[in-house]
Amino acid sequence: LEEDPFADAEDEEEEFTIGRRRRRSTG
Questions:
Q1: Residue 23: phi, psi to the nearest 5?
Q2: CA–CA separation, 7 vs 13, rounded Å?
Q3: What does the alpha-carbon distance between residue 15 and residue 2 come to, in Å, rounded to a whole number?
Q4: CA–CA separation, 19 and 4 (whole Å)
Q5: What pTM value is reported for the model?
Q6: pLDDT above 60: residue 27
Q7: Dihedral class, residue 4 (left if φ above 0, else alpha if ψ from -120 to 50, else beta)
Q8: Would you say residue 2 has pLDDT above 70?
Q9: If you ran DSSP here, which 8-state letter would residue 4 be given?
Q10: Phi and psi for 25 in degrees, rounded to 5?
């Protein structure tokens, strides 16, 4: 099983996008 170097980056990007969406909906 090879580690996917993009897996972590994608997760971080997704978390960041969700966080932005939450902040936007709250404000």
A1: -60, -40
A2: 10
A3: 23
A4: 23
A5: 0.22
A6: no
A7: beta
A8: yes
A9: -
A10: -70, -30
Six token digits for residue 10: 């994608």
Residue 10 has a pLDDT of 62
DSSP state of 2: -
Q: How far apart are CA 26 and CA 19, in angstroms?
A: 11
- Tokens 């990007």 sit at which residue? 13
Nearest to 18 by CA among 10, 7, 6: 10
Query: Distance (Å, rounded) from C-alpha 2 to C-alpha 21?
Result: 32
Tokens in use for 3?
Answer: 């580690």
